[in-house]
C-alpha cells in the first residue's frame, strides 16, 4: 500500500473513531435522560405506557441503549480495521437511521390518531381506579403534581366515580371534590414534557447528523481496506 493510501486510511480511521465516540457519548446522554425521566415519573408507574412522560422515558432508554451499542461497534471496527465489524456497523446504523426516519414520519402523519388512541387507553385504565390501589395512587399523584383532572376533561371521572370527582382533582385538604381542576392531565403532562426536554430534541438532531457522517466514513474506510487487501494480493 502506498504512503498516500496509508495516510488516507489513517485519517479516515481516526475521524470515524471520533465520530463514533461522539455517537456513543450521545447514546449515554439519551440513556441518562431516559433514566432521569423514569425516576421522576416513578410515582406514575402504574399508569399505561401511553401516558406522555412514561412513553418518552421508555423511548429514550431504548434509543440510548441501541445508540451506545452501535457507537461501540463503530469504534471497535475503526480501531481494529476489520471489514466484518465495519460492515456490521454500517448495516445496523443504516437500519437505525431508516427506522428513525420512518418513526418520525409515522408520528408526524398519524399524530392526531396516536394521541386519540393514547387518550382512549388512559380512559380505559381509569375504570380500574377504585379496584387497583397502585393505579389509584398513580392517578392521584399525577393530578396533584400537574393540578389537572381527568384525561381530556374532568367529566372523564363521572362514569368511574358515579358522577363525583376524586379528592386529588382539588386542592390538598379538601375531603370532597366538587369542582376540580379545569385542565386535562394528558395535555398538561405533554406540555410539561415539551417544556422540560427541548434540548433533547436538538441533541437528537445532532446525533442524527453524526449518524450520517459515521455512515459515510464507515463506507469510505470499508472501501479503502478492501482496496488495500486487493493490492496486497
Automatic annotation (TrEMBL):
State the source organism's domain of life.
Answer: Eukaryota
| Entry's transmembrane regions | 12-39, 59-79, 86-110, 200-223
Say if the entry is tagged with keyword Translocase: no
What GO cellular component entries does it have? plasma membrane
**Keywords assigned by UniProt?**
Membrane, Transmembrane, Transmembrane helix
Q: Read off the InterPro entries from this record.
A: Tetraspanin/Peripherin (IPR018499), Tetraspanin_animals (IPR000301), Tetraspanin_CS (IPR018503)
Q: How does it sit in the membrane?
A: Multi-pass membrane protein
Q: Where in the cell is it found?
A: Membrane
Which Pfam families does the record cross-reference, listed alphabetically? Tetraspanin (PF00335)
Family membership noted in the UniProt record: Belongs to the tetraspanin (TM4SF) family.
State the name under which the record lists this protein.
Tetraspanin-4-like
Q: Which organism is it from?
A: Solea senegalensis (Senegalese sole)
